[in-house]
Amino acid sequence: MTFDTADAPAGPLDGVRVLALEQMQALPYATQLLGRLGADVVKVEPPKGGDSGRASLPAMTDPAGRRVGATFLRNNLGKRSICVDLKDPRGRDLVLRLAPRFDVIAENSRPGTMARLGVGYDDVAAVHPAGVYVSVSGFGGLDAGPYQEWPAFAPIVEAMSGIYEMKRTGDRAPSVAPVGALGDIGAALFATVGILAALRHREHTGRGQYVDIAMFDAMIAMTDIVTNFWSMGLRNGDLGPLIMHGFRAEDGWFVLQVAREAHFARLAGLIGRPEWRTDPRLATRQGWVDHLETVIRPAVEGWAAGLTKVEACRALGAAGIAAGPCLSDEEVVADPHVAARNMLVEVPRTDGVPQPVLVPGNPVKMSAAPSARRAGGAREEHRPPWLGEHTAAVLTAELGLSPGEIDALTADGVIA
Question: Which CATH superfamily is domain 243-326 in?
Answer without folding.
Answer: formyl-coa transferase, domain 3 (3.30.1540.10)
